[in-house]
């Protein structure tokens, strides 16, 4: 695969040398891009110069410094809309993707006649919306994924989309799994909407390496995290709301910056009629302009080129890892997900095996990689549905655990069920090179024929 992309290899090696030199300088192998992308040197330089050479004031005023901040914030907002071809959307800046999802959970009109449908493969920030639903006596249900390849169970989802009738139905799913890297078909957006559903698309794991065209696919709500795309700044995301769905979000309170008028003599207020309705208090006006810088940087490389690079790296890594065996011919790894790696991002999830086929605890693997200065991630990655699927946990087992205690944690559940949970996740990104992958492959090879227990 790399031979076909030799020009890409040269380009990205140069990019790494000039923009991400700290990796080689510190002799660190970074393979946690789904956890957080890395920022480039040029992004920091441009943002520092912007801060160093100008005076920024709190928006919501007409003084010169306030107007300057407002101008840069609105330029960033328009840049986001242009980047995603989102002419028909409002861009609401939030502290992160979770903050974007919270707005939907808090403001969607769940009621007894409504329904909330979720894919089993969802981040906990999406799963948590079910609590808003439950508190308003609205029913919710999960639709399963296929155990074999972790894709959507098409038959089950089709049935559920057709069988539920109500006035406020919300279907939530990720464009790309934050764990398996599986890209779930965006055509489900239109299929759900044709059956009367509003669609919440979690795009946080998808947009760092794939183009999201909101003219082609038009979910009602989209959550995005910017540091996942270009590393800096953290603490900023956005909720994109289709203008036709804006009035459906019913804000139940107001704050500074969200109203056009409010009174204390009489309990009246008028909410703003655009994105400001949901941007509570003072927005992060010093860092929001860095979004423009970050998106400009990504566009200077090209999402198509980034996507091809990520696919090439992932295929290289996957094809070598899947061949690794102990001397007794048992596999060293179980690699979950699609075996042909079609429609996947730069994430691979795996469990390590001892020669006798027993699982090596994921925390032991992380301890060993830490010693080698290799950054990976382990656990369930805030996605319990996929973790429960991979580790074959049953509803009865999980129910038994939760109903026999008032508090608990990950390790307590493992001890109670006597089943392993969690896995190891490796993810590649814009600054990854072949040497990084070879270092991880060598790490796995060095565990051949070794038995590692708790």
Would you kindly provide a written description of the structure presented here, covering whatever features stand out?
The structure is a single chain. With 454 residues, the protein is α/β, with parallel strands linked by helices. It has 17 helices and 15 strands. It has a 7-stranded mixed beta sheet with strand order 2-8-7-6-5-3-4, sandwiched between helices. The longest helix has 20 residues, at 64-83. The two termini are 38 Å apart.
Provide a short characterization of the protein structure.
This protein is of the alpha/beta class. It has 17 helices and 15 strands.
Low-confidence stretches: 1-6
- Number of separate strands: 15
Q: Biggest sheet, strands in spatial order?
A: 2-8-7-6-5-3-4
Alpha plus pi helix count: 17
Overall pLDDT confidence: 94
Percent of residues in helical segments?
25-40%
| Strand portion | 5-15%
Q: What structural category arises from helix and sheet content?
A: alpha/beta
**Main sheet, how many strands, which sense, barrel?**
7 strands, mixed
Please report the distance between the alpha carbons of the first and last residues: 38 Å
């Amino acid at each position: 695969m790399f031979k076909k992309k030799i020009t890409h290899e040269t380009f990205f090696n140069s990019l790494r040398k000039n923009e991400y030199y700290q990796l080689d300088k510190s002799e660190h192998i970074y393979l946690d891009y789904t956890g957080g992308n890395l920022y480039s040197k040029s992004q920091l330089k441009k943002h520092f110069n912007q801060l160093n050479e100008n005076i920024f004031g709190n928006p919501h005023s007409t003084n010169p410094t306030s107007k300057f901040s407002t101008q840069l914030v609105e330029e960033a907002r328009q840049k986001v809309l242009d980047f995603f071809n989102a002419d028909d959307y409002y861009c609401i800046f939030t502290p992160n993707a979770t903050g974007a999802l919270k707005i939907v959970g808090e403001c969607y009109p769940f009621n007894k006649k409504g329904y909330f449908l979720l894919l089993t493969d969802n981040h906990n920030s999406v799963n948590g919306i079910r609590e808003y639903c439950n508190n308003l006596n609205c029913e919710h249900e999960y639709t399963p994924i296929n155990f074999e390849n972790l894709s959507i169970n098409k038959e089950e989802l089709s049935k559920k989309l057709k069988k539920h009738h109500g006035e406020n139905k919300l279907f939530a799913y990720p464009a790309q799994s934050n764990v398996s890297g599986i890209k779930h078909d965006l055509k489900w957006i239109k299929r759900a909407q044709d059956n009367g559903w509003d669609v919440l698309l979690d795009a946080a794991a998808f947009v760092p390496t794939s183009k999201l065209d909101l003219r082609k696919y038009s979910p009602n709500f989209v959550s995005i995290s910017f540091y996942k795309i270009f590393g800096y700044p953290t603490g900023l995301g956005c909720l994109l709301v289709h203008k036709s769905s804006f009035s459906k979000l019913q804000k139940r309170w107001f704050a500074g910056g969200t109203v056009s008028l409010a009174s204390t003599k009489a309990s009246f207020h008028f909410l703003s009629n655009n994105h400001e309705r949901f941007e509570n208090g003072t927005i992060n006006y010093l860092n929001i302009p860095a979004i423009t810088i970050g998106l400009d940087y990504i566009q200077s490389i090209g999402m198509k080129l980034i996507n091809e690079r990520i696919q090439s790296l992932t295929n290289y890594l996957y094809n070598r890892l899947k061949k690794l065996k102990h001397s007794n011919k048992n596999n060293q790894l179980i690699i979950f997900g699609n075996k042909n790696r079609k429609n996947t991002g730069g994430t691979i999830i795996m469990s390590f095996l001892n020669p006798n086929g027993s699982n090596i605890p994921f925390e032991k693997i992380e301890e060993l990689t830490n010693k080698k200065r290799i950054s990976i991630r382990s656990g369930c990655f805030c996605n319990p549905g996929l973790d429960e699927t991979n580790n074959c946990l049953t509803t009865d087992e999980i129910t038994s655990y939760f109903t026999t205690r008032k508090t608990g944690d990950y390790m307590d559940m493992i001890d109670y069920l006597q089943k392993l949970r969690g896995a190891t996740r490796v993810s590649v990104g814009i600054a990854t090179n072949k040497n990084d992958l070879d270092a991880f492959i060598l790490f796995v090879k060095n565990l051949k024929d070794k038995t590692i227990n708790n």
